[in-house]
């Protein structure tokens, strides 16, 4: 148990801190850009679907970054603690932080008289897991975090400027419904799982 | 030139370039401009040709006043202070000021008698509190507030005696109360209100201008540029960040000790990145020109139109995005440039509360818009602004590249160490 706590502590200190700072920066910027006071049930979708899902990209995509340096990956592979365990713990930390940030933000919106509910928070969280899942999978397969950032951003832009049908992230904004959020959430989880699997294969192959 | 070729080869062989190129082509396909989903046809009489701003105060004033009254009634105002939708609720003091504006705009809705009588509905410090259910539009276009307990409804009828100057002044006051960026600001009022239908004669004139001035392909190229700008305003930052971060991992120390000047190195890299991201665009331009030759005939089109727009319209956008990537990555050794460019893209693309979101250009807009096939006269009207904008964006790019050279040079000499960025340096956790 102390090993896990140690992993959490060191990850927070050396890996996750800049990303948490970036996530907080996004959360501070969102009210400036969109406004979160006294929004009705339809307009709360703007910050929740346009801005907060990027928390997933910020927190999940760089999970494998530390070991993507060739020199470090060799060192990590010979360690006794399994590398995937470390990555798993990082993913859990990222997912928990995403949950806390999004639900905290929604609580703040509620306190500011916006018409938000748990369903809105869950919908935003589903989008964040989906975008983050795309990012972490692209990062794991390509071995570069920048590609991991590009793929979800590209998806976001294409969906925003057109519409990706059943896989659109913007149902709340466009129709005022939560349709398809569960699908996105499950795809996001599958992407995260696939990223761990592909990382395992890539690590063993080297 | 050798260095440029080497950098270009490095970019072209990278996975991120292949993904970015695929993304650019896929985006063009999903937006219906590659291949083009529509052709330019002569307008038929009796059809609908869209609307345009009339600029007529007699039409603008009642519409704007009614819109303000509707928002006032529910105390929820739509504004775009940073280009993004923001709803504003006024406090008691500001509501009292808005009461006075509404009272002056209306014939009798908030006359002194109405506001000062004790039995007026839900008054508080002279303000009216009305929820959305209490508002109803009359057949004549006026609005009515339904008061509780069957009391006399309050009508809003625009005061036609008001002059345009006074009206503009009142609307400016309202915009100030709302923190700016509302539909009632001087900039937006004439775009948002007083729209009139485009006539057949006007539609025909626009078609003829498209044929004579644009030679068909010019109009298509503008629509293509409109969509390509959206993607070129964002995607080029990724290969730039990727290339700079790859240096950090593998060859930064070797690069620093080479004899080549920092300016030559950065310039070669910048040009290689821009060439690479423009390559799929230029290939699409060539293919589209071929398609239009088949559609309209070689003699009826401007064969270079797509390429003219690629260099004049799209290139500055791609250069700006690349320069942001180079500068911030060289400075920080982190992918923060992606966040910076994404923010700029967001404000640019989703920003603006009116016509500029689809047509035209505002100051320092990195992605000019022309979301229409045709509208040649509108293009010719904003062309001087567009030229100025493209020059400004190019100048920003030049500045960013110059700063990149300075930062890179300082790092080579060991002069620039920003400790806050070292925290993100890779470290083993366990």
Architecture overview:
The complex is a heterodimer of chains A (206) and B (430). In chain A, 76% of the residues lie in helices and 0% in strands. With 206 residues, chain A is mainly α. Chain A has one domain. In chain A, helix 3 packs antiparallel against helix 5 and helix 6 packs parallel to helix 9 (181-205). Chain B has a three-stranded antiparallel β-sheet with strand order 6-7-8, covered by helices on one side. Chain B has a two-stranded antiparallel sheet with strand order 1-9. In chain B, strands 2-3 form a two-stranded antiparallel ribbon. Classes of the chains: A mainly alpha (206), B mainly alpha (430). Chains A and B meet through helix 1, helix 4 and helix 7 of A and helix 2, strand 3, helix 9, helix 10 and helix 14 of B.
Topology of this structure?
The complex is a heterodimer of chains A (206) and B (430).
Chain A lengths: L1 H33 L10 H7 L2 H7 L9 H8 L5 H29 L6 H25 L2 H17 L9 H5 L5 H25 L1
Helix pairs in contact in A: 1-3, 1-5, 3-5, 3-6, 5-6, 5-9, 6-7, 6-9
Chain B lengths: L1 H11 L2 H16 L20 E3 L3 H17 L3 E3 L6 E3 L3 H14 L6 H5 L6 E2 L2 E2 L6 E3 L5 E3 L8 E3 L7 H14 L8 H7 L2 E3 L2 H15 L2 H16 L4 H14 L1 H5 L5 H35 L8 H28 L3 H15 L8 E2 L8 E2 L5 H37 L6 H4 L8
Antiparallel strand pairs in B: 1-9, 2-3, 4-5, 6-7, 7-8, 10-11
């Amino acid at each position: 148990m102390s090993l896990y706590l140690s992993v959490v502590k060191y990850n927070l200190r050396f890996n996750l801190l800049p990303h948490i700072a970036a996530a907080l920066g996004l959360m501070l910027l969102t009210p400036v850009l969109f406004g979160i006071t006294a929004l009705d049930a339809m307009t709360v979708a703007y910050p929740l679907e346009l801005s907060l899902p990027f928390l997933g990209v910020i927190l999940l995509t760089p999970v494998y970054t530390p070991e993507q340096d060739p020199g470090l990956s060799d060192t990590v592979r010979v360690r006794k603690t399994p590398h995937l365990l470390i990555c798993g713990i990082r993913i859990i930390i990222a997912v928990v932080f995403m949950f806390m940030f999004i639900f905290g933000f929604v609580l703040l919106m509620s306190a500011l008289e916006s018409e938000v509910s748990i369903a809105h928070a869950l919908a935003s969280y589903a989008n964040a897991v989906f975008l983050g899942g795309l990012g972490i999978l692209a990062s794991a397969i390509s071995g570069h975090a920048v590609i991991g950032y590009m793929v979800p951003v590209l998806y976001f832009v294409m969906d925003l400027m057109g519409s990706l049908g059943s896989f659109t992230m913007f149902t709340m904004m466009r129709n005022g419904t939560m349709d398809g959020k569960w699908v996105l959430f499950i795809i996001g989880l599958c992407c995260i799982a696939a990223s761990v699997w592909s990382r395992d294969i890539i690590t063993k192959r080297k | 030139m050798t260095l440029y070729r080497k950098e270009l080869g490095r970019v072209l062989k990278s996975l991120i370039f292949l993904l970015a190129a695929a993304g650019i082509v896929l985006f063009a396909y999903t937006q219906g401009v590659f291949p083009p989903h529509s052709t330019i046809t002569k307008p038929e009489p009796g059809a609908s040709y869209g609307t345009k701003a009339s600029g007529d105060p007699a039409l603008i004033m009642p519409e704007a006043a009614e819109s303000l009254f509707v928002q006032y009634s529910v105390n929820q105002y739509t504004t775009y202070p940073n280009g993004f939708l923001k709803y504003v609720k006024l406090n008691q003091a500001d509501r009292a000021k808005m009461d006075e504006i509404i009272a002056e705009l209306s014939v009798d809705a908030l006359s002194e008698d109405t506001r000062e009588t004790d039995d007026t509905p839900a008054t508080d410090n002279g303000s009216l509190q009305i929820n959305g259910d209490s508002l109803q539009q009359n057949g004549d276009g006026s609005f009515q507030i339904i008061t509780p307990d069957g009391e006399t409804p309050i009508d809003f009828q625009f005061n036609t005696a008001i002059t345009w100057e006074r009206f503009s002044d009142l609307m400016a006051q309202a915009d100030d109360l709302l923190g700016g960026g509302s539909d009632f600001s001087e900039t937006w009022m004439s775009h948002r209100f007083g729209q009139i239908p485009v006539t057949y004669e006007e539609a025909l004139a626009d078609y003829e201008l498209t044929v004579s001035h644009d030679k068909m392909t010019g109009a298509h190229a503008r629509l293509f540029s409109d969509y390509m700008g959206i993607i070129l305003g964002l995607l080029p930052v990724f290969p730039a960040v990727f290339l700079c971060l790859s240096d950090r991992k593998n060859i930064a120390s070797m690069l620093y000790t080479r004899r080549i000047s920092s300016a030559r190195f950065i310039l070669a890299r910048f040009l290689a990145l821009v060439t690479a991201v423009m390559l799929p665009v230029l290939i699409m331009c060539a293919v589209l020109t071929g398609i239009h030759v088949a559609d309209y005939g070689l003699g009826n089109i401007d064969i270079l139109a797509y390429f003219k727009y690629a260099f004049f319209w799209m290139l500055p956008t791609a250069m700006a995005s690349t320069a942001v990537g180079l500068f911030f990555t060289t400075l920080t050794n982190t992918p923060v440039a992606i966040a910076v460019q994404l923010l700029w893209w967001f404000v640019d693309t989703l920003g603006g509360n009116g016509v500029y979101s689809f047509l035209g250009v505002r100051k320092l807009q990195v992605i000019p818009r022309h979301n229409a096939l045709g509208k040649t006269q509108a293009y010719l009207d904003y062309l001087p602004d567009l030229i100025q904008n493209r020059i400004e964006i190019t100048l920003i790019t030049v500045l960013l590249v110059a700063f990149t050279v300075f930062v890179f040079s300082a790092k080579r000499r060991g002069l620039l160490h920003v400790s806050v960025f070292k925290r993100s340096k890779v470290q083993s956790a366990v």
